[in-house]
């Protein structure tokens, strides 16, 4: 009579090994996904974070002055917000950029990655402790449709909307230098031509920024 027990034992052993192999493969695949996700999402494995820039920090040279860890990641669009100018800066000699929630508009900018341990440098540049801007997280979309949560900054001072066709008051107008820096950064990053045209449409006060920032950025830029 044929003894089936050795066969059953062999099947159980093979089954056990297969299950171990399956479990091992599953664990490996999961770990690989976690590692890949972490490497693609700053703030995890790389100890970095996403920063969405829309103003003077569109220009790499400007951002790198005080944030040496900044690396270009992608252009991106922030829906439900508008670009505006408010609050006079002595450095720029005119109103500086801010974003304001507005369901009818969107803002195009740049996603940068920066080292998490240098986040305070960006906060200092934006005047967070001085009460000029406050940081907030926003969800932006890359040209490939990827949604990314990024840190950005909005002016603390309320920025009322100026109706189209209404003259922009002097205290809401950027200096020529400041707008040139924004334009140079937009062109450098390859922002859409229609958005660049939109940026050009903003009037300026005709003034130049403080000589020190102009010197640091290599003014004149020959953009406009």
UniProtKB/TrEMBL annotation:
EC number: 4.3.2.9
Entry superkingdom: Eukaryota
UniProt name for this protein: gamma-glutamylcyclotransferase
Keywords, sorted A to Z: Lyase, Membrane, Transmembrane, Transmembrane helix
Pfam families: AIG2_2 (PF13772)
An example molecular function term from Gene Ontology annotations: gamma-glutamylcyclotransferase activity
Broadest EC class assigned to this enzyme: lyase
Membrane spanning stretches: 21-42
Binding site for substrate: 51-56, 178
UniProt-listed CDD domains: GGCT_like (cd06661)
Residues forming the catalytic site: 126 (proton acceptor)
């Amino acid at each position: 009579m044929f003894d089936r027990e050795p066969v059953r034992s062999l099947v159980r052993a093979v089954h056990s090994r297969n299950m171990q192999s399956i479990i091992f493969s599953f664990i490996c695949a999961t770990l690989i996904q976690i590692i890949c996700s972490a490497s693609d999402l700053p703030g995890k494995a790389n100890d970095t974070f996403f920063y969405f820039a829309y103003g003077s920090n569109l220009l790499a040279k400007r951002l790198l002055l005080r944030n040496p860890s900044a690396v270009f990641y992608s252009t991106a669009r922030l829906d439900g917000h508008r670009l505006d100018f408010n609050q006079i800066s002595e450095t720029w000699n005119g109103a500086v950029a801010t974003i304001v929630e507005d369901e009818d508009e969107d803002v195009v900018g740049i996603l940068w990655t920066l080292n998490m341990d240098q986040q305070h440098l960006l906060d200092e540049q934006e005047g967070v402790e001085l009460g000029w801007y406050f940081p907030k997280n926003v969800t932006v979309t890359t040209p490939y449709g990827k949604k990314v949560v990024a840190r950005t900054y909005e002016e603390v001072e309320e920025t009322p909307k100026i109706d189209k066709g209404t003259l922009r008051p002097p205290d809401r107008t950027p200096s020529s230098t400041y707008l040139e820096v924004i334009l140079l950064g937009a062109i450098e990053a390859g922002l859409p031509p229609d958005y660049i045209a939109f940026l050009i449409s903003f009037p300026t006060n005709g003034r130049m920024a403080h000589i020190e920032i102009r010197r640091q950025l290599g003014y004149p830029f020959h953009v406009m």
